[in-house]
């Protein structure tokens, strides 16, 4: 009788462990992972007890299968889950970007300031010396010298220039991300670089700047990817910073961890965009292709991003009441 009662008491834990073996590990909270570990250890003890108490063969066989499944689930090597990567890349990531308020703030600051600075840098009559004051006269002269000659498809020269811009703009993105927990420095850094880049674009677009044609021949194809990547890096940093302020009742550390998970899709998409910008900047931007081809690349890049962020990112599923499935204890 005591043995039957003991088996009946342990049966609930076995069934819970059996159910957890059927749920994806990715959907577990840290508490559920710890609960699974405890249930697995208890099941191993129960199997040893079953052998000692000479329980029915069916019960022992069930426990052996349960322990084997649990061991496989807990210690199995990570495979390449194509379906999960597809779900993350084409649904989770774009939806995370679409609905994140930090993305909207970063995009508004960066592209808003960039557009204003570009207009002020171009409208020399209304805002004299604006570009020189923002960028610096020496930097303006350096850019003019760099683009004084038409692109001739000399990949050794232009790929090295592309490497400089990739390093420079990627460092901007990393700085904005690293300063994210401080929030205000990130916004200031983002705004300053938007002003600097916008003023440069505006200055080079002036009718009297002869080097402007060569400049836009180089930057048109890859600019969309690179500028968007910078803004997304800052948004990911802001998301981390928000974790320190808006804790939603959690401890600051738990809130930071939760927001770090939300920032992960943003920074991964940013890295992907930097990679696409690097590829374009190294092989298409310095080439002697006709300018309309590079304009088409820019339009295609912008259309691709609009589709990815707005069409794929628009939420179609109802928002769950809880982020993870719960297991009845």
Structural class, please? mainly alpha
What is the radius of gyration? Answer: 28 Å
Strand content: under 5%
Helix content: over 70%
SSE order in H/E notation?
HHHHHHHHHHHHH
Number of helical segments with 4 or more residues: 13
- Distance between the first and last residues' Cα: 26 Å
- The whole-number mean of residue pLDDT values reads 83
Give start-end ranges of low-pLDDT stretches. 318-329
Instruction: Say how many strands there are.
Output: 0
Q: Looking at the structure, what is the overall shape?
A: elongated
Largest sheet geometry: none
| Total individual domains | 2
Summary keywords:
disordered C terminus; 329 residues; mainly alpha; 2 domains
Q: How is this structure best described in words?
A:
- The chain has 329 residues and is an all-alpha fold.
- The protein has 2 domains: 74 residues; 226 residues, no CATH class.
- Helices cover 75% and strands 0% of the residues.
- The C terminus is likely disordered.
Précis, in short:
The chain is an all-alpha fold and 329 residues long. The chain contains 13 helices and no strands. α5 packs across α11 and α11 runs antiparallel to α12.
Topology:
Layout (H helix, E strand, L loop, with lengths): L1 H20 L8 H24 L3 H19 L6 H18 L1 H22 L7 H6 L1 H10 L8 H24 L5 H21 L7 H8 L3 H23 L6 H32 L7 H21 L18
